[in-house]
Design brief:
Order of helices and strands: HHHHHHHHHHHH
Largest sheet: none
Shape: globular
Helix content: over 70%
Number of helices: 12
Number of strands: 0
Length: 324
Amino acid sequence: MDWLDAGLNEPLIVVRAIHFAATAVTTGALIFRAVVLEPALRSDEGLCAGQKGDKLRKQSLSLAWIGLGLTLASGAIWLLIEAASMSERPLAEAMSSSLLLTVLQQTQFGQVCEIRLLLSAVLAACLAYHRFGLVDRLALGAGLGLAAAIAWTGHAGSTPGELGNLHLTADALHLLAASAWIGGLVPLVLLLAAAGGDRAFAWPSLTRNATKRFSTLGVVGVATLAATGIINAWILVGSFHALLSTGYGRLLTLKLGLVGIMLVFAASNRFWLTPRLTRSSGNELPAEVLHQLTRNSVIEIALGFGIFAIVGMLGMMHPAIHLL
């Protein structure tokens, strides 16, 4: 990794990447449930009240539980690694309660961890008692907070003054948009796979409705990512010269390249496959279109997880604007 001009902590990169991906899946599943699944189910009262509707709801809840579990586990490991790094002690010694308490109470990273742990507890309670409308809304709020709060653990959290407020706002919105798009793709793929693999489970009208709604959500997410990404790049990179001549800039360029590839698949889904699916009629979904939608979405998820790995590295490097 000499081309990055940086010595990086590989275990921390892996943990951060897993944590970002798990948080995105957790929040994305909740956004998908609120914005895509529930409205699609309500459009068909029979499905909304039936056992099959309950099955889809349980599927989204299970995904949120899995994501939350991975978020908590990776977050705990991240805290331990950071404590060891801050104290310059071996990882085994960093597990002492006194050191962890110091990090939690006296550092911004630790305080953000405490807030996110509280949000995780609220979310877990809401997932356990999910049959009430108000609880579902509280769960969504906790999930959004869980993702947005990551902004305070990175470069945005250390940017001072009015610029820092702009940076934090942009970064938080960036994280939420990424969760809605990449994290939301996971429950969409599960729905598409069920529709393609089990004709009794397909419910063509539901699949068409959910796919169309997610397509709209994706457009909003991509637009938000683009706008906030420009702001973040302006603050952290500052110039095209820095983008090309620093390790941070080159890694950011790689991230932008992966996003560009994702956009190609997303555009194919949005402008070619989704209209073909929604224009189909009757009780049969076009199998080839369904297969291509599922395949493209899986590729988007894989690219998105690769982007999370890059973000895990970028957060550990000096911004390009500080290196010139």
